[in-house]
């Protein structure tokens, strides 16, 4: 339950002015409005009262002996305990920079002398209400941040806790499936395959959630190694063979060379490529044609591309694609599996390698997704290898 608003009668205001008549008039107006008022004849006295007794607001003249209003405001703002107290300054100075200097020191608002007493109370009320709103917004922000941290921590813990039993389920499921296969027991082998497939699907979702949680908490830690482009592509396609086959899709490889070496996190980068292929299959029609290509850029980097002839993407949705959980339909009745984390995680993985990720698409003209790997991570190749482009047709 939120804090209840404080009524004006409970508000305490410190009024600092070296003019006794001004203090008397302003105090009378504030008391008449229902505020508690404590007066001070200079900034040093006002600062001492604020630190000792506290207050909801400080009203200070700018021109005072011992400590003027500028110095008082700066002293309040530099104090950790009372630094958030709103400060209204009052000035009779004809210098044009006086108000600017006051705001630079940290003043919340100002009034000019001679005072408009009919508006004085309303000005004070406005500053106090604005400060209440600012506190409420800060409390809501802190609460939201705490909630986000809790969700990320819970997601991370749950992901770790689920991976161990899931690996056991998948491993023993494969053993059982192999045993049924040896016995030519196709029915029970099919059941075991369902267990393995379900376990893998859940493990992939858990891994995606864990990676998303790690990305929110800070930079992803890479397990870097030198790996050839051919191995990355083979790793990526190995994870989507069944998906591609069931969708009757085709994947064409167009690589400048399988021998190009990349310093990267092999598991993460191949996972990013796999997600792009899987995304093309998932959102494309049956028999969708996919091109998985790679080429060295003029700057010496590596561009990895996945292109399809699917339905394409509306221009207004392009900006949403790398936002987490941004599937077209996130209801429980949606027709496609997944958490909507695929493309956002591809971007996270590309960024972690110092690269970039972009998607080009037009409605009904398919889509092209490109991961850019920087030159520093790409091993130099001979001119012969660089010119040797291979293209293979692979139908799964």
Automatic annotation (TrEMBL):
InterPro entries: CheY-like_superfamily (IPR011006), HATPase_C_sf (IPR036890), HATPase_dom (IPR003594), His_kinase_dom (IPR005467), HisK_dim/P_dom (IPR003661), HisK_dim/P_sf (IPR036097), Sig_transdc_His_kin-like_C (IPR004358), Sig_transdc_resp-reg_receiver (IPR001789). Residues 12-128 form the Response regulatory domain. SUPFAM superfamilies: ATPase domain of HSP90 chaperone/DNA topoisomerase II/histidine kinase (SSF55874), CheY-like (SSF52172), Homodimeric domain of signal transducing histidine kinase (SSF47384). The keyword Plastid does not apply. This is histidine kinase. Pfam families: HATPase_c, HisKA, Response_reg. It comes from Hyphococcus aureus. It catalyses: ATP + protein L-histidine = ADP + protein N-phospho-L-histidine. Keywords: Kinase, Phosphoprotein, Transferase. Its EC number is 2.7.13.3.
């Amino acid at each position: 339950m939120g804090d209840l608003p404080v009524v004006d009668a409970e508000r305490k205001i410190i009024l600092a002015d070296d003019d006794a008549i001004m203090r008397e008039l302003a105090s009378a107006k504030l008391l008449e409005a229902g505020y508690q008022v404590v007066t001070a004849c200079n900034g040093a006295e006002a600062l001492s009262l604020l630190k000792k007794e506290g207050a909801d607001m400080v009203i200070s003249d700018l021109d005072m002996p011992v400590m003027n209003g500028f110095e008082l405001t700066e002293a309040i703002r530099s104090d950790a305990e009372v630094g958030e107290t709103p400060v209204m300054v009052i000035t009779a100075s004809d210098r044009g920079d006086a108000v600017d200097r006051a705001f630079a020191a940290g003043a919340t608002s100002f009034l000019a002398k001679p005072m408009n007493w009919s508006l004085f109370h309303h000005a004070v009320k406005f500053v106090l209400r604005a400060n209440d709103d600012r506190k409420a917004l800060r409390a809501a922000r802190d609460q939201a941040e705490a909630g986000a941290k809790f969700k990320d921590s819970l997601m991370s813990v749950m992901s770790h806790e689920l991976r161990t039993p899931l690996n056991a389920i998948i491993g023993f499921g494969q053993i059982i499936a192999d045993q049924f296969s040896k016995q030519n027991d196709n029915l029970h082998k099919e059941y075991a395959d369902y267990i393995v497939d379900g376990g893998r699907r859940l493990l992939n979702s858990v891994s995606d959630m864990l990676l998303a949680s790690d990305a929110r908490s800070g930079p992803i830690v890479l397990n870097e190694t030198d790996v050839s482009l051919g191995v990355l592509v083979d790793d990526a396609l190995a994870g989507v063979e069944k998906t591609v086959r069931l969708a009757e899709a085709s994947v064409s490889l167009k690589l400048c060379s399988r021998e190009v070496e990349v310093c990267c996190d092999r598991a993460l980068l191949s996972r990013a490529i796999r997600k792009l292929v899987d995304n093309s299959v998932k959102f494309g029609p049956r028999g969708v044609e996919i091109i998985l290509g790679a080429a060295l850029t003029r700057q010496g980097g590596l561009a990895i591309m996945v292109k399809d002839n699917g339905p394409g993407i509306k221009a207004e949705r392009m900006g949403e694609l790398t936002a987490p959980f941004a599937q077209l339909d996130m209801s429980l009745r949606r027709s496609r599996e997944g958490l909507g984390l695929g493309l956002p995680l591809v971007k996270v993985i590309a960024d972690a390698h110092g690269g970039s990720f972009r998607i080009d698409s037009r409605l009904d003209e398919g889509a092209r997704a490109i991961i850019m790997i920087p030159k520093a991570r790409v091993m130099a190749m001979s001119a012969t290898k660089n010119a040797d482009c291979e293209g293979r047709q692979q139908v799964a």
